[in-house]
Structures are given as structure tokens and as C-alpha cells.
From TrEMBL:
Domain Lacto-N-biose phosphorylase central residue range list: 441-658
A Pfam family this chain is assigned to: LBP_C
InterPro entries found in the cross-reference section: Class_I_gatase-like, Glyco_hydro_b, Ig-like_fold, Lact_bio_phlase-like_N, Lacto-N-biose_phosphorylase, LBP_C, LBP_M
EC number: 2.4.1.211
Keyword Transferase tagged: yes
Protein name: 1,3-beta-galactosyl-N-acetylhexosamine phosphorylase
The organism's taxonomic lineage, starting at the top: Bacteria, Bacillati, Bacillota, Clostridia, Peptostreptococcales
Length: 719
């Protein structure tokens, strides 16, 4: 059994001897610096692979200060203002943190900025407004009293948002603010390349250049109290400039408006149904980033260094499931592992030699403090990610932050030692083979499809939000299931549903990109899906699937699902719900149902519907037969062990393959298994922190009953 390897740990200042002990205990074979630290000469002699963080857009602050007109920019929108007269003065910087942004008044503001009447949605003619350069006010004339007005405008980023976050979180009060510059400007890009080459020459000991990431940061806007105002881990708005808009027009044949980015003030949140213009912009920026990032990777490769990308911070334009990503030529991707979903988002990335996960907690003072629980967070993080690792493992794991903080918690050091050894044991046992999966694929259908694989219904990576946990649970459950999962969009449906897809899931709130909005009144999409289910396909809807209010219904596939949601238009119609108490889908759920926030007003539309759960008089879980196919409706599905089992059984039920579910199976919902038939081994895991007893099934037959300790993983021979 290996006792070393596959682990990367962060360094810190002044603890070289302590680090050597941790390296031995955790079996680390690689070390990395962290923002604000540098690898010491003593550590450089330990024969370990050495990573070094490289920040392409802010490593040279002298260049930033000398070229303030080439800093990165973004479109922002002012607060809404109600006109009380025919003239209004709008303080455009009200509500923004003035240390983060500065309005770009160098370029032609009349062609780049927009004043919009939000009551009508119309753009105000630029002749009707002027700008007060001293007060940062836009004064709009000849307008309609009691209409709402906003200003969309370009700002320079005079403080990098990640450095700002670290500054505030880690109390970097004495560190100067760093400004990000934009490689869209040819002279800045040439300087960036030359600076990288010089940096590599000056750091010959570095084996891996860890780009963080390349050019453009996700959208992160702070308010005037230095707190987050708007955050979108998927946002592209922080990559604009006059040069960008000019080049977009040349390539795509039309001019982007500010409103194409501002999007009524939503900044094209991933929950918005993307417009053609926005998708064109994502494609345009991704192509630019990939083309130019390749030059950075080539510089590293020419110096015999590996090139690794951090899937975070400045990752915009490097969509790992996009059509340009593999052309960058990266050796590896590393990202933060918040749960099984984010683990799969990293481990499934194509076109790289290896993937690495940065596990939680980060060694930051927000967790490593008196009253913090770093051991509990580490244990929970590993246990939730492990079930997904058994499906598509990362090649490496590691931690980030400042190691000196972690060393103050000896029990945490012990816990990570166990995690590292268990990770290596998984690799040793499975020997790069794939776990057994069902003989059909499950597809998640939304507006983004493959581009946002393992990224559905999320705002900021793995952070919890009340509005989304009932949907994120779907992909979190799927991340560790014995299933091959694909992400498809509505254009994929038009081309025809591939024969290897057995079940389609549509989960999200009405009118969001995840549910689909107006796509559900496209007769081609509707008829293709109806026919597919009727001929034997399986369909699962969660929340408000297929939702668009039209022609007397909200759920446009009401016939397939057998249910609809009443928005109070149908109160005059009587609704009758009769509960089915026993069903294949629910037979292992003993602790009651958890549908999260759920949905009200769900009612039966077909006699073939069986209602499995009712909440406040409304349907929360139901099944329907539709021709040769089947469908299941759920009002929500947070991640819980019970819900993982509920979804798994639903998938097999809608596929009409109940008898095949126990090919490799464990009975206790708090346990799961992964069978590696090529090597004759099966992992059985306890996902809880209590002892659990579970029956083990192989080929449908009960073969053994196991008792697992808290969080335990047990290996069985199955040859």
C-alpha cells in the first residue's frame, strides 16, 4: 500500500521543520506557495514537485500603475432612480465601493454608456444626457416624470476582487491594492508574456506553473460598505472594454449594447435564459482567452514546466466543457472541492493529463480560530466528496491556505492524514478502472447543456442558498450514483435524443435557464420529448419542470408528468388527491420526505397518476405512466442520503428497470457502494457519522450484511 504521493500541501513562512513533519505524515509529494508567501530555499531541497501560483493579470503592479487606461473593465448599472420631474440627476457610483471601481471617462461615453427608461425598457437618446465629471453624476433631460431610470457604464477595476477578498478576510491591512490589467491591449499582452518568461527564468526550481487563472475574473462587485453586492461565479461582465466591443463587432458582424451585458440589471446571471447575443459573447471571449492562454502555456512548456489552471478566480473564458478549452494545452486543472458536485466538475474535465482537488477547509482564520471546527469541516467535506470520487476520481488532492494555522490544531492534522491515506487506497484498489454503472445514461436538460456540466442551479460554486438547495441536490445526488450523466440543452433535443440516454431530468424554477422558459412552447421540442417518453423513455421533473404559462397550463408536459401547478387561475376547479402508501420508489424511505422549499399548488391532471407524498394538501411526489414510458414529479430534492436513494429508485422506475437496480447494491440509505468489476473489488461506504448496518446485494442476491463504523469505507472482493 502506498504511503506517499498524490497530495499537495501549502507552505507558510518560518515553519520549515514543522512542514517536513507534515509532508511525511500526509505523504505529500508536492508543495505550493500561497498568495502572499514564497517557497523557502530549504523546502526546495526536499525532492518534491513544486507548484507556484502565477497571477498573469496582476503580477506586475508597476505596469498597472503606468498603464491605468489598460486596466480591466466591466459594465455596471447604477441604482434605480425615479424621476420626479422632466430632469433627473443620477449618482452613478452610489452603492458601489469606490476603492474597487473608477468610471471610464477616457473613452467615448456617449457611445459606450446607456441611460435606460426601465419603465418602458427604451434606451434614452444620448443627446438627452450629459455627465458631470466632478460629481460622477449623469443628468438626464426631457424625460417622463415617475418613470424609472438607470445608467449602464464602464468602470476600471482599480482593486482586484480576489486580492480584495483576501485583504478583508486575512486582514492584509498593510498590503497595497493590486489592479488587474487587460491582455486585450496588444502592448499589455506582450508585456504579460515577457514578464512570465522572466519569472520562469528567475524561478528555475518551480516544476508547475499554477496559473490563477488567466485573464478575466468572475463577476464580483462590492458595495459601499466593502461587502459583496453582486457575485456570480459564472459571470462574464468583468471582461469588457471598447477594444473588446470593437473586436466583437468585427468577428460577429454586429455591435453589442451595454444592455446585452447588464441584462435588466441581472448581469446575465446563469439563472437567466441566455440570449443569442450573450451566448455569442461567451463564445467570443472563450475563443480569445483560449487562443492567448495557449501562448502562456507554451512559454511554460518551452521551459520544461507543467502548466496548471486553477478553476476559480480568473477562470472566465476557460469554460472547461467548452469547445475551445482543450486547445489551451494545459497539463492539469485544480479546483476547490466543496462537495461531490464540484468534485465531478473538476474530475470530469476532458483534455488534461490530470486533475487535482483543493479540499476544505482552506487554512484561513475564518475557520482556524477559537470556536472553529476544522476537523468537522474536513470530515464532512471528504465524506460528501468521496462518494463522487469513487465514480470519477481526481488524480490528486491537496489543501490551500496557510499551513501554520492548521498546525495549531493537532486533531486536524490527524484527520487529514487519514483522508490522504484513504484517497491513495482508493487509487491503489481501483487501478484506474471505472466503477460499474447502469446500462443507460441519465441526461440533465437545461438551457446551458454541456457547457455548464456539473454547474447547474449554482450561484457561487458550492455555497448554500435557500433558493437553490432544493435543486442542487439533484446533481449532488447524481455525482455519486452508479450512473453515467450527461448535460444537454434544447438544441441537442432538436437533433434527436441519443439512443443511449434512458432518463431525462429537468429541474428548476419556472422561467429560469435550468427549467427552460420559452423553450417549452417550442412545438418541436415538446413533440420530440412526448414521443420519446411515449415510446419508452423516462422523464423526471423537479420543482417547476417544463414550465411556461400558456394555453391553460404551466407545465407544458403536464401529460407526461401527469401533474400541473395551479397559479390560482384554476381555483374554481375541484382537485382530488388520494395517496398511494406503498410503491417501489419509496419503499426504503423510513425517515419521512424532505422536498426542501418545495412547490405549492401541484395537482393531478391524469387518472394514471399515483401520488406518493402530499404536503399541505398539494402533491409533492408522484408517478405517471405515459405510453411505454414513465415519469416522476418531485417538488424539490435537497441532498440527503434518503433523497439519493429516492432519486436512484425513481430513475430505475421511470426506466422500467426495477429488477436491475440491485446489480450492486446496499440496503441502508446511509450507505452506498461502487463495484469495480475489472479488478474484482467493491467499495462500501458509510456516508454518516454513526455506525450503520447494511445488506449487500450482488446480481440481485443478498451476499453479506456489513456493519460500518462512522464514515468508514470497507473493501469487498467480488470475483
Amino acid at each position: 500500500m502506498a504511503t506517499k504521493g498524490c497530495v499537495t500541501i501549502p507552505t507558510d513562512v518560518g515553519i520549515d521543520k514543522e512542514m517536513q513533519e507534515v509532508i511525511k505524515r500526509w505523504g505529500a509529494d508536492a508543495i505550493r506557495d500561497c498568495d502572499g508567501t514564497k517557497l523557502s530555499s530549504d523546502l526546495q531541497n526536499l525532492n518534491l514537485k513544486m507548484y507556484s501560483t502565477y497571477l498573469p493579470t496582476r503580477n506586475d503592479q508597476e505596469w498597472a500603475k503606468s498603464n491605468m487606461d489598460q486596466l480591466q473593465q466591466l459594465y455596471v448599472v447604477s441604482e434605480s432612480n425615479i424621476a420626479l420631474d422632466t430632469t433627473i440627476s443620477i449618482d452613478i457610483m452610489k452603492g458601489f465601493y469606490k476603492e474597487q471601481f473608477k468610471p471610464n471617462t477616457k473613452d467615448d461615453i456617449k457611445s459606450l454608456w446607456e441611460v435606460v427608461d426601465r419603465t418602458t425598457g427604451e434606451k434614452i437618446d444620448s443627446n438627452k444626457w450629459i455627465y458631470d465629471y466632478e460629481k460622477n453624476y449623469v443628468i438626464v433631460n426631457d424625460i417622463i416624470p415617475f418613470h424609472e431610470y438607470t445608467v449602464s457604464f464602464l468602470v476600471y477595476q482599480i482593486w482586484d476582487p480576489t486580492q480584495m477578498y483576501n485583504h478583508l478576510t486575512n486582514n492584509w491591512g498593510d498590503k497595497p491594492h493590486e489592479m488587474p490589467y487587460d491582455g486585450r491591449h496588444p502592448e499589455t499582452f506582450e508585456h504579460m508574456k515577457n514578464y512570465l518568461q522572466n519569472w520562469i527564468n528567475e524561478n528555475p526550481e518551480i516544476d508547475v506553473v499554477r496559473f490563477t487563472t488567466f485573464f478575466y475574473h468572475f463577476t464580483l462587485i462590492y458595495n459601499d460598505q466593502a461587502k459583496e453586492k453582486f457575485v456570480d461565479w459564472f459571470g462574464y461582465s468583468s471582461s469588457l472594454s471598447k477594444e473588446c466591443l470593437d473586436e466583437f463587432e468585427k468577428e460577429k458582424g454586429y455591435r453589442l449594447r451595454a444592455e446585452d451585458i447588464i441584462d435588466e440589471g441581472y448581469y446575465n446571471s446563469p439563472f437567466r435564459i441566455p440570449t443569442k447575443e450573450y451566448l455569442d459573447f461567451v463564445d467570443f471571449q472563450s475563443k480569445f482567452v483560449a487562443t492567448n492562454a495557449k501562448e502562456f502555456v507554451d512559454i511554460a512548456h518551452n521551459a520544461k514546466k507543467e502548466a496548471m489552471m486553477f478553476l476559480g478566480d480568473n477562470w472566465i473564458g476557460t469554460e472547461p466543457y467548452g469547445k475551445y478549452f482543450e486547445s489551451i494545452g494545459l497539463d492539469a486543472v485544480v479546483g476547490s472541492v466543496g462537495n461531490g458536485t464540484t468534485m465531478r466538475m473538476i474530475s470530469d474535465i476532458p483534455g488534461v493529463k490530470y486533475t487535482e482537488g483543493r479540499f476544505l477547509p482552506y487554512f484561513f482564520p475564518d475557520v482556524f480560530r477559537e470556536g472553529g471546527d476544522p476537523v468537522g469541516e474536513a470530515r464532512e467535506n471528504w465524506t460528501q466528496a468521496r462518494r463522487a470520487i469513487l465514480r470519477k476520481p481526481l488524480d490528486r488532492i491537496g489543501y490551500g491556505g496557510y499551513l501554520g494555522l492548521a498546525l495549531q490544531f493537532p486533531e486536524f492534522v490527524d484527520e487529514v492524514e487519514k483522508i490522504c491515506e484513504e484517497f491513495r487506497t482508493i487509487h491503489n484498489n481501483i487501478q484506474k478502472t471505472k466503477a460499474h454503472t447502469a446500462p443507460f445514461k441519465v441526461a440533465v436538460l437545461n438551457c446551458w447543456g454541456k457547457l455548464r456540466s456539473w454547474q447547474t442551479n449554482q450561484v457561487a460554486h458550492a455555497l448554500w442558498y435557500k433558493e437553490i438547495y432544493s435543486y442542487v441536490g439533484v446533481i449532488e445526488c447524481l455525482s455519486g450514483m452508479p450512473l453515467d450523466v450527461e448535460f444537454i440543452n434544447f438544441e441537442d433535443i432538436r437533433k434527436g435524443i441519443p439512443s443511449d440516454i434512458g432518463v431525462i431530468i429537468n429541474a428548476g424554477d419556472a422561467m429560469t435557464s435550468w427549467s427552460g422558459g420559452e423553450n417549452w412552447i417550442d412545438e418541436d421540442i415538446i413533440t420530440v420529448l412526448r414521443r420519446w417518453v411515449y415510446e419508452g423513455g423516462g422523464f423526471i421533473g423537479v420543482g417547476e419542470p417544463t414550465a411556461y404559462q400558456k394555453q391553460g397550463k404551466l407545465f407544458q408536459l403536464f401529460d407526461v408528468l401527469g401533474v400541473d401547478r395551479d397559479l390560482t387561475y384554476g381555483l374554481s376547479y375541484r382537485k382530488y388527491n388520494e395517496l398511494t402508501k406503498e410503491h417501489f420508489i419509496t419503499e426504503e424511505i423510513k425517515e419521512g420526505f424532505d422536498f426542501g422549499e418545495g412547490k405549492e399548488g401541484i395537482f393531478k391532471k391524469r387518472d394514471s397518476v399515483e401520488i406518493l407524498s402530499i404536503h399541505k394538501g398539494d402533491i409533492a411526489l408522484s408517478t405517471n405512466n405515459y405510453g411505454k414510458g414513465r415519469a416522476v414529479y418531485m417538488s424539490g430534492l435537497p441532498y440527503t442520503p434518503e433523497n439519493c436513494r429516492l432519486l436512484l429508485r425513481s430513475i430505475y422506475w421511470v426506466k422500467n428497470m426495477e429488477n436491475d437496480m440491485k446489480e450492486y447494491y446496499v440496503s441502508n440509505v446511509n450507505t452506498e457502494c461502487a463495484a469495480f468489476t475489472e479488478v474484482g473489488k467493491m467499495a462500501v461506504i458509510n456516508n454518516s457519522f454513526d455506525n450503520q448496518t447494511t445488506d449487500v446485494y450482488i446480481k440481485g442476491e443478498l451476499v453479506e450484511t456489513l456493519t460500518l463504523k462512522s464514515g468508514e469505507l470497507v473493501w469487498m472482493n467480488i470475483k
